[in-house]
Amino acid sequence: MTAGVLVLHPWWGLNDDVKAYAERLRRERYEVGAPDLFHGRVATTIEAAKSLSGEVSKNWQSAMTEIEDALDKLQADRVAVLAWSMGVWFSWQLAQAHPDRIRGLVSYYGYGEIQPGKSLPPILGHFAENDEFEALDDVRKTEKALADGGHVAQFHVYPGTKHWFDEPSRPEFDRAASEQAWKRTLSFLDKNLRP
């Protein structure tokens, strides 16, 4: 059986950070798919990122179709979805739509919605301690709601970090936290994709 990871980019787009992460996964012998929801455009400012992600939000069904196409192209029997911020919502939707294919979710500083009557695969969450977009109280409430609903989820909060701590091109990048998250992610992927 083959293992694959579908990588969903943050609101900056499919930039060098995301491409480098995808390449690291390939070096770990995972098949990797990384759809470009911005079609070649990359944001370097928050204002530009808001604009590009806003376009995707308005046409989220089209974006979901692109993501499902990327999933179909992955030559892997067992797939996990790894996403940052904007991509996380899509990853949770995808997992609930394709429970037979998606075996795990890795979410960086974000979480999605749980649809009534739907199941989710195991979830690994990475969150910043000082995050202007995701309040820690909400993160903990979501983790508890998942546990109460019978879902398997483990959320890690990285002390002293800010949103975007995992992205080397950002000033918020925290190398130690990023490396710790990477090690936890590899362990999670190995457990759920290579049992």
For this entry, give a set of tags:
6 strands; alpha/beta; six-stranded parallel beta sheet; 195 residues
Can you walk through the features of this model?
- The chain is of the alpha/beta class and 195 residues long.
- The protein is built from 6 helices and 6 strands, in the order E-H-E-H-H-E-H-E-E-H-E-H.
- The chain has a 6-stranded parallel sheet, with helices on both faces.
- The longest helix is centred in the C-terminal third of the chain and has 19 residues.
- It is globular, with a radius of gyration of 15 Å.
The largest sheet has its strands arranged as 2-1-3-4-5-6
Secondary structure class reads alpha/beta
The termini sit apart by 10 Å
Helix content: 40-55%
Number of helices: 6
The biggest beta sheet, please? 6 strands, parallel
Beta percentage is: 15-25%
Q: What overall geometry do the principal axes of the alpha carbons give?
A: globular
What do the pLDDT scores average to? 94
